[in-house]
């Protein structure tokens, strides 16, 4: 007897953005006071399966100056990801829709699928880049839920093994209390390059596996 | 000037499962010791945009007896959702892939997109059903990250406005410490029916909106 076979929908095409049509001055879907919209407006999309080299101007961390540096990890027409500037642990990153959406319920169905797809890819990538095998995914909606920036975002937070006291501090800090240290620029740049590379690697492995499965069905 | 237009992929077809082909005895993609696999094997898929009536045997909470009752909220060929039996707040629910996947990185790309899609739908539905406007989405991977059941699951946890002390207890309890009360069966049944209804409502609104946008483009 076989399990209930889900009808296999074809994998949606990997979006291959055309950076030359990107208009960084546009703000049609952005909120001018939102720091994540500033990032979204500054960094053009690129093909995540072959990220630009670390020296590329298109991902230069200082483009958001005088605001804090931005260490981009992913930039598609629909979603962006970057390192949290006040990380709870090495590799703590944020994934959000490119457009300004306050809560998860403001996101379109297509964006939500894309967020789901990339939160898995980024989880795998950050685990490879940091060597930390456990992690939390956290997405807060509204002030009572400790949302600080009102632009929907998923935290991916690596969880190194910690002893009791530090683990407790970690958990309470996750929801906005306690001390968080600022990201060091040099470390951020190296880590971001490693995560972008791992994202490309994961996407290629996914594609290879999907091709293999297609062949196996023939 | 216009913003970078993401290439609009067509919305994937809403899976309309055929419950008559569902084989509850199958365990090919399941782990026999996993409580979420027990739920997955017990409850057949249904069309989430028109959920079965509360009296339907196919969603009867006692089908998992002698294990705790299960209050199903969603059951597709790919994902299932149900009320947490030790809720942190009214409406606290879990969403997971139907197949046994220990961590988010074990999930297939297609499953991850489906999880992303439904975590938004369920967020909207639970907010409508409970009237609580703020909520957390939490997904833990591995023991160091407080994952208890090793079958990948997203928590959706409504956050009523709480005063300092209770809010603190809430946060620390979210990661596995402190007291959580058991779900009352009668309340669970009524709330689950309300959430299933709201899921159908949200999906229909999404579909209507998508149709509208298609017409506007013509």
From TrEMBL, chains A, B:
Residues 59-167 form the HIT domain. GO terms for biological process: nucleotide metabolic process. Residues 21-32 have a biased composition (Polar residues). InterPro entries: Histidine_triad_HIT, HIT-like, HIT-like_sf. A motif (Histidine triad motif) lies at residues 151-155. It comes from the Eukaryota. The active site is at 153 (tele-amp-histidine intermediate). GO terms for molecular function: catalytic activity. Residues 1-33 are annotated as: Disordered. Pfam families: HIT (PF01230). Gene3D superfamilies: HIT-like. Residues 1-18 have a biased composition (Pro residues). This is Hit family protein 1.
């Amino acid at each position: 007897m076989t399990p209930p076979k889900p009808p296999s929908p074809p994998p949606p095409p990997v979006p291959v953005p055309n950076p030359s049509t990107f208009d960084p001055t546009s703000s049609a879907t952005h909120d001018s006071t939102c720091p994540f919209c500033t990032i979204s407006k500054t960094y053009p999309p690129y093909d995540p399966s072959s990220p630009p080299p670390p020296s590329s101007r298109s991902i230069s961390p200082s483009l958001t100056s005088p605001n804090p540096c931005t260490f981009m990890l992913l930039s598609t027409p629909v979603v962006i990801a970057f390192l949290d500037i006040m990380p709870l642990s090495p590799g703590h990153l944020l994934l959000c829709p490119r457009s300004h959406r306050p809560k998860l319920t403001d996101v379109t169905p297509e964006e939500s699928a894309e967020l789901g797809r990339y939160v898995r890819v980024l989880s795998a990538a950050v685990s490879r880049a940091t060597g930390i095998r456990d992690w939390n995914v956290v997405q807060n909606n509204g002030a009572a839920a400790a949302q600080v920036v009102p632009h929907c975002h998923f935290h991916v937070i690596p969880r190194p093994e910690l002893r009791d006291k530090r683990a407790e501090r970690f958990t309470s800090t996750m929801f906005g209390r306690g001390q968080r240290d600022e990201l060091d620029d040099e470390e951020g740049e190296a880590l971001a390059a490693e995560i972008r590379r791992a994202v490309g690697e994961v996407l290629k492995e996914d594609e290879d596996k999907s091709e293999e499965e297609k062949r196996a069905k023939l």
